[in-house]
Specification:
It contains 13 helices and no strands. By secondary structure, it is mainly α.
Amino acid sequence: MTTATASAIATVGLEAAPSWLSERLTSNAHPDVVGAFDRARETFIGGRRIDMGALAGSIGVDRTSLFRWVGNRDALLSEVLWSLAIPTLMQAERASAELSGGDRIAGILTHFVDDLITADYFRQFLRREPARALRLLTTKESPIQRRYVATAEWLVRRDLGDVPLGGVIDPAGLAYLLVRVSESFTYADLISGDLPSSDRARVAFRLLLRVDG
């Protein structure tokens, strides 16, 4: 895998669906914003709830300043979640580097689903705030789903071309279906009361992508 490929999978989502906070974080012009974000990210990875009052106190500012820096809690959570999705996607890309075509797309997405299912701090968040988690992760209420769809479309175009599967579906439509499959099996416990399963996601991805075997 080339450095350019690694960079693309890390940036395509942000480029497709930037937010006010993501632009502040990437501009290098707001060190206070970056510091607050990093503290929030550490809190999340530690399996703890991001509380805006506690976060403000931990960095020595009032809540008004914190909200001015990073926006509301949903905006902050969305960027924290996507910041963790990026290295997970990059790791999935590396793990599937020897594959090609639809097999590689299925491998990357399966690896990504499995990492989300097995990440303790992420599952703690889903159990702690299920309604908010689904809203931020699987709807247009935050940029996360749009970024994931954009990333999936980039994979489709790279590995299957601009006319995938003989032209029966366009890249954007196929990407959206792949993301919905990913969400369905990653958050099965919240959506249907079923067990999350990367194995079942893998079967579904391969069926959609017409990968034999």
